[in-house]
Design goal:
The chain is an alpha/beta fold. The chain has 2 domains: about 1-75, no CATH class; about 75-250, Ribosomal Protein S5, domain 2. Helices cover about 25% and strands about 30% of the residues. The protein has 7 helices and 13 strands. The strands form 3 sheets. A 7-stranded mixed beta sheet has the order 7-8-6-5-9-12-13. Strands 1-2-3-4 form a 4-stranded antiparallel beta sheet, with no helix packed on it. A two-stranded antiparallel sheet has the order 10-11.
Amino acid sequence: MSAVKKVKNRSRCAPTAWANGPKLLEHIVDCVLQFEGDRHNTYRILRTLKNRFGSTDEMGIYEMQAAGLREVSNPSELLLSQKDEELSGCAVAATMEGMRPMLIETQALVSKAVFGTPQRSATGFDMRRLSMLLAVLEKRCGYFFSINDVFLNLAGGIRVEDPAIDLAIVVSLISSLMDVSIPSNVCFAGEVGLSGEIRAVQRVEQRISEADRLGFKEIYVSKYGMKGIDPKRYGIRIQTLGKVEELKGALFV
């Protein structure tokens, strides 16, 4: 009887959440690394998804060569496309991947919709976030994208989740819509809110320093994130904005 009672008691015990789940191995190990890459691109990204004894905010970028992987010490150089002339629809964003500042070029193409329903496509950026930014531009600035196809791409085949890239994407969308080019020595760092405000982002000093180091002449940031920062410390000119509407007078006169 006692043996039967023990079996019954064991059957009532629910298994732990991780015992039979798909993430069983991730619960056991101390570190999980993810190797990302596009088969049409030679660059590979190594991300830390779990680390019990260190930070998960680190990322490594490598280049596939004939002799193997080569570490890319300056990711900003490969994420900025090479072109001989300034073209509309391009804007550079000062982003952060973990603790590392990087400058990435955003490319947008806005054209008249051929079919009844305008197309929306984004490579390396969240589609829902793109829809939100388009709605903000229509509501707050009067730019009409509802009758246009919109295509968005981030140079280098990298995916960015940093909200500070919002401002550069907004600028590239307006630039393509109006067919006005943005100077290649100008970059942007700011999060765009639903009411059209340009919100402050984290580690703005590191972003400014990276843009200054790479030879950029001007950077646009939120005016709410400049507290305690002395612009005279940098060789780059710092422009501050509070709302998306201010872009029209600053860049698209």
